[in-house]
Write a structure and sequence with these properties.
The protein is of the alpha+beta class. It contains 3 helices and 4 strands. The strands form 2 sheets. The protein has a two-stranded antiparallel ribbon. Strands 3-4 form a two-stranded antiparallel sheet.
Length: 104
Amino acid sequence: MEFQDKVLKCVDCGAEFIFTAGEQLFFFDKQFKNEPKRCKPCKSKRVSTLAGAPPTATTYPRVETRTVCSQCGKETTVPFRPTQGRPVFCRECFQQRRTTAATA
């Protein structure tokens, strides 16, 4: 397969950039399906911005909900909002059910 240089338009700054035949061959070898969307300066800027961002897990506050265990009746806290109609277990009952299910 022979590749030829292509002129593409950057989605961030709108500038035209060249997607070289060598880059196309690299994309083909790696089985990448999409052409690049950003010119090299915008891609570098985006990578540096994303590298400095905190992980997404820390952007959401952790939910702690007080509830009653469906098995033993003990009051407990769980790290999620319980769904109505589904049982909620304390740590001990949850671990017990987990080990019972693993041995079955």
